[in-house]
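Page 47, continued from p. 46.
Same chain as before, 412 aa.
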Amino acid sequence: MSENRRVVVTGMGAVTPLGNDWNTTWAGLKSGKNGIGPITRFDTQGYKATLAAEVRGFDPKDYLEVNEVLRTDRYAQLAVAAAQQAVDQSAIQGAVEPERFAVIFGTGIGGIGTLEKEHQKLLEKGPRRVSPLFVPMMIGNMAAGLIAIRHDCRGSAMPAVTACASGSNAIGEALRLIRHGYADAAITGGAEAGICPSAVAGFTNMQALSVSQDPDGASLPFDKRRGGFVIGEGAAALVLEEYEHAKARGAMIYGEVCGYGSTCDAYHITAPHPEARGGAQAMTDAMKEAGYSPEDTVYVNAHGTGTPMNDVLETAAIKLALGEEAARRALISSTKSMTGHMLGAAGALEALACLGALAEGIIPPTINLEEPDEACDLNYVPKTAVRAGLTLALSNSLGFGGHNACLAFRKV
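Result:
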């Protein structure tokens, strides 16, 4: 197999709390739009956490036949939609051999809505009433499988399931497939649809969710008032392609994926390592692959969940990776302040945000950052977007289980 082929992005798609396509979502990110509001997907009476970042106005029938909608979980529907947008934008269909076309698509918890619904049927109506489609609708590889079937991707097709790092790990592993010659193109990204009673109750009871009743005071990355993340949903997809392959067919290129770091804290099932060692190493590895130099103007799309420990330790990781001086020059923001935490889809959307920032020289803000935490003392681009001539963008994702991923992007 050939080594170290360049990998570029030729298609992007998104279904998010800010809009049901990438252009609308990016406009929302730049303008500081808040996608958080009261949960409408179930009755929140008795719940401490009542806010979420829901996808609104999405009709799966725009992408799937009625019988397909009935046979798929919401997370898979969102994934199929984002992937279709990315494939359409890239015009990759038919331009790559099916055996050289891969899918790596992430999710943190897959079809949890289906699991909840069918388990309720089991309890109330007995085992014979459980759907025969329960298992294929629930399992976490089904989004990748459906995308592969739809687009005739006969190469590797699998999920990345690393909690909140799933979307970033999916993109990184797709990068490696193409870079090392196992594929010429891949559909990658992440999807999640976890705004349901059991997930909200579980995250709340482990004290991970914000219990604020104010949509503008709930997702507060790097702010002293932060008290947890706001659960979000959605999907984001990218078409990755080998550079010479893309150039030969005249494809529009939106940026280059030039670095990837993937590590584990090997420390605790939910808490990050107190010295931020895993996150810092993932960043260092991605920066090394990307050919980082102190002259680079760097944007970091932070994991930035708004949980007390995460934001302090991610700040420490950025300082360790970049060095104190360069960390203070870097432009950093958490788009989760607008989208909530989209779990397995978060890293994929944040990769798109990095590409948008590089292309337009606009850094999306960390909205609602009113009271900076003394322990979070870097430039988090508070409240409004800023302009900068970026040369390198990094996207961090830090997941339960100690999973860390960092992606690096440059213009082509």
